[in-house]
Amino acid sequence: MDTDVDRLRPRPPRETQRRRRVPGHWSIWVAATGWALGHLLVITTDGSLPFDWPARSGADTAAVLVETNLALLQVLLLMSIVWWLTRRRTDLDVAARAPEHRRAVRETWGLLAYGAAGLLGGFLLARALGWHPFGLHLAGTIFGTHAHLDRAEVVAWALYNLVVYAVVPLAYFGRRYSTMALGLRSTCRRNDLLVVGVVLALETWFQIVVLQPESLDLPPGVLVRGAALTFVLYLLGAVLPAMVFVYAILIPRFLRVTGSAAATVLCGGLVYAGLHVWDAWTVLSSPRSAALSIAFLVFTYLGPGMIKSFLTLRTGNAWVHVWAYHAFAPHTLIDTPHIVQVFRMR
User: Fold this and answer.
1) pLDDT interval class at 9 (50, 70, 90)
2) Helices (DSSP H) in 142-246: which residue ranges?
3) In Å, what is the CA distance from 318 to each residue of 11, 42, 80, 94, 321?
4) Is residue 16 scored above 60 in pLDDT?
5) Residue 34: in which H helix or E strand, if any?
6) Phi and psi torsions of 276, nearest 5°
7) Ramachandran region, residue 239 (left: φ > 0; alpha: ψ -120 to 50; beta: rest)
8) Is the separation of the CB atoms in 200 and 307 below 8 Å?
9) Are 243 and 166 in contact, with CB atoms under 8 Å apart?
């Protein structure tokens, strides 16, 4: 355990704790309503989805919705396990790592505007070079979208995201806040390692048993080399950018501004989903397709964004989600065949 730990508040009275844990907080009801409306939108369409999803080939709309809800259920189960694993830790005052309320509001809106500008810049730069727009995911990630990429596009995507969402924000906020305030240091390494080990094992088991990734069918030599390259590329282009921009910097500010752990987890999930708006499978050419794309962006990425936010709040360590639920599973496990194909590994 580090000696330089957070200043901890005394536990609030039990009545206050119960009030804070009541699941009827407005943000939860708003999220549940939005989730239901998204399903209603999908159900009331003509039954077909306009997306290029080779990984879901043959699945009808109803099956996709069932899969979506099972994925959210899995995230909620993981969150309950994380809560149990961290139940004996002294409550961390993560909100105290953010500045006072007014400044936190300004910084939050500034960061959101900066993130939107980063997405716009990624769109314009990539399109100018004849590539897919740069979002948090490389074209073809997870869903295996039929996207033809060259090596230069992959490297440029990774470097662009690393600079825009990790290097620049960290350079700016790193001069103003300590590594502890940014959640880049552990306050209890033993418990952090326990959380990482349990969550990583469960998520890896789920990915292998339920999703049966194609990476397991690769020849051993290709698998090793491909997995190593996939790990590095996605660490630079997706994992570290999300870790710094969303979980190290935005999460404490969301908690300071909203005063609610539930709202903070949901905000983290929504921002994470928004950073994937340029995913290669989204279709924004018509109002119907755009609405469906937004709905499925939320269906797909809200849950993973929530578990990452929850891991950060429960441990106070933005690194925990990197190793527990991002860098290895799902990206290295699922996306290795994609990188093997792009770099023509044999």
Assistant:
1) very low
2) 151-161, 168-174, 189-206, 220-234, 240-242
3) 23, 35, 19, 11, 7
4) no
5) helix 26-43
6) -105, 15
7) alpha
8) no
9) yes
Please tell me which residue, 157 or 47, carries the higher pLDDT value: 157
- Tell me the C-alpha distance between 176 and 313, whole Å: 21
What is the spatial distance between Cα 328 and Cα 204, in angstroms, rounded to a whole number?
8
Instruction: Judge residue 176's burial from the number of C-beta atoms within 10 Å of its C-beta, 0-12 exposed, 13-18 middle, 19 or more buried.
Output: exposed
Yes or no: say if 293 and 42 are a contact pair by the CB < 8 Å rule.
no
Instruction: Please state, as a whole number, how many other Cβ atoms lie within 10 Å of the Cβ of residue 123.
Output: 16
Give me the pLDDT at residue 83, please.
Answer: 96
- Under the banding of pLDDT at 50, 70 and 90, the label for residue 47 is low
- Every domain of the chain and the residues it spans: 75-82+99-342
**Cα separation, 342 vs 226, whole angstroms:** 10
Cβ atoms of 336 and 217 closer than 8 Å: no
* Pair 218, 226: CB distance under 8 Å: yes
The greatest distance separating any two alpha carbons of the chain, rounded to the nearest whole angstrom, comes to 62
Q: How many CB atoms lie within 10 A of CB 282?
A: 22
Confidence (pLDDT) at 184:
95
Q: How far is CA 31 from CA 140, 247, 311, 322, in A?
A: 28, 20, 19, 25
Range from 10-14, 83-87, 287-291, 308-312 carrying the lowest mean pLDDT: 10-14
Give the list of residues 6+ apart from residue 214 with CB closer than 8 angstroms, or none: 337
In this structure, which amino acid lies at residue 280?
A: A
- Across the chain, mean pLDDT equals 90
Could you tell me if 141 and 158 are in contact, meaning their C-beta atoms sit under 8 angstroms apart? no
**Dihedral of the CA atoms 67, 75, 296, 52 (nearest 10)?**
-60
Contacting residues for 198 by C-beta, under 8 A, at least 6 apart: 81, 85
Q: CA-to-CA distance for 55 and 313, rounded, in angstroms?
A: 32
